[in-house]
Design a protein that fits this description.
Helices cover 59% and strands 13% of the residues. By secondary structure, the chain is an alpha+beta fold. It folds into 2 domains: 96 residues; 125 residues, no CATH class. Strands 2-1-6-5 form a 4-stranded mixed beta sheet, with helices on both faces. Helix 1 runs antiparallel to helix 3 and helix 5 packs across helix 6.
């Protein structure tokens, strides 16, 4: 029983989707099959009356063959609404989980800085970036540009400080005009590929508080030295992007 309950809870959305899809086909087939029967009943009703039927009389004469199709249609609609409700519930759960995780992460960073000094968080990030230096082989060096590491996106790219500043300015224009912008919007300006989470994470300027809003978008750049003397700029966000901004 417990395994069945877990299975149904985990796959309920998929099950409802399949049932709803089958329901659409079944409703169509049942309606098509019921039409000839309904037409025969209408003809019989016309012969009995000896005149054209009114709208009410037409419904009264032909409604019975469509009972199976009606039941199938109502069930299909119920499945569709069930999928929407499950989706809304899952989305609310994800948002709550993200908010809890985000708050915990912020508290952790704050406590690390209190215990080990102001630059402790930055030093940890530098060591993480150095450990990922072996993935640089996938990025081709571009002449006249500096090496950057997008800490949130966990990837390397080549750019210049001027291009980063220009991207900040253009993204702030997006925030000013629309009130919000996603991470992939910022990546578009920098000429970087989208990430899977880039549409779900972003910033909003509607509210000015620590979690949901910001007055002005900006990035933080910290230079560090890799193995072999290679210098790299670590790009982070003072105000991290939020889920369902």
């Amino acid at each position: 029983m417990n395994k069945t309950e877990v299975f149904l809870r985990k796959h309920s959305s998929t099950i409802l989707t399949v049932v709803g899809s089958v329901g659409v086909v079944a409703t169509t087939v049942l309606a098509v099959k019921a039409t000839p029967k309904a037409m025969m009943l209408l003809e019989e009703a016309k012969e009995e009356k000896g005149d054209e039927l009114t709208v009410v009389e037409t419904v009264q004469a032909a409604w019975k063959p469509y009972i199976p199709a009606t039941i199938s249609g109502i069930s299909t609609i119920a499945c569709i609404f069930g999928i929407k409700q499950l989706s809304a519930r899952n989305q609310a759960s994800l948002m709550s989980a993200y908010a809890l995780l985000d708050n915990s992460y912020k508290e952790y960073r704050k406590k690390v800085e209190e215990l080990y000094g102001e630059n402790s968080d930055l030093n940890v990030k530098k060591e993480i970036v150095k450990a990922k230096y072996n993935t640089l082989e996938d990025v081709y060096e571009e002449e006249g540009k500096d090496l950057f590491f997008d800490y949130e996106g966990c990837r390397w790219f080549w750019s210049t400080l001027e291009e980063i500043e220009e991207a900040e300015y253009k993204f702030n224009q997006i925030l000013t005009m629309s009130g919000f912008g996603c991470v992939n919007d910022f990546y578009d300006i920098l000429g970087l590929e989208h990430t899977d989470a880039g549409f779900q994470l972003g910033w909003s300027s509607f509210e000015n508080d620590d979690l949901y809003g910001l007055e002005s978008f900006k990035v933080t750049l910290e230079k560090t030295e890799m193995e072999g003397g290679m210098e790299c700029w670590i790009m982070t966000y003072p105000c991290p992007p939020t889920f369902m901004y």
